[in-house]
Amino acid sequence: MRKNTKKPFVKREEADQHRINDKIISREIRLVVDGAEPQVMSVSAALQLAEEQELDLVEISPNAVPPVCKIMDYRKFMYNQKKKQKELKAKQSKVVLKEIRFGPNTDDHDFQFKLAHARKFLEEGSKVKAYVFFRGRTIVFKDRGEILLLKFAQELADIGAVEQLPKLEGKRMIIMINPKKK
Fold first, then answer.
1. Where are the domains positioned within the chain?
2. Would the pLDDT of 152 be above 60?
């Protein structure tokens, strides 16, 4: 008669987590108790202590010799860890890049209109990428495009800092402006 050689299906999350209670494979462990010196003892004695307190024995540092364990409420511990990770993720800020396009012969009214949009984007905390797009023969007006972008940056100097000065890349002259920290 052949034995069943299939391994039981274990979720990846469970496999990556800590060993608890009967899953601890070491014979001796170092038990860390709050407010006391760590003690080296057998797993069975530590499990008995954990049972008396109606808590779990959790292997915190499996690579130490002997492995370090702690008696705690494992579900509460995992809940607090997930909560901390969620808070850290919420505190991360994503950089949003907004683009504003000009032509080399942009009129003053259009310039003011786009300037107002850029001001709003910078106040929201977004980066602004302004560029002058040269079509066909308008490439001969490179100096106009550069003057336009420098004027744009100068108008936004109170709320934005220039990250990259006007630079020609193919048919576009680009300037990058970051919001100033408050």
1. 12-88, 97-179
2. yes
Question: Does 1.10.357.10 match the CATH number of domain 12-88?
Answer: no
pTM for the full model?
A: 0.49
Residues 6+ apart with CB under 8 A from 163: 127, 176, 177, 178
Span 140-166, average pLDDT = 85
Give the CATH number of domain 97-179: 3.30.110.10
Q: How far apart are CA 129 and CA 114, in angstroms?
A: 12
Q: Cβ(69)–Cβ(29) under 8 Å?
A: yes
What are the pLDDT digits (tens) for 65-86?
Answer: 788 888 888 888 888 889 998 8
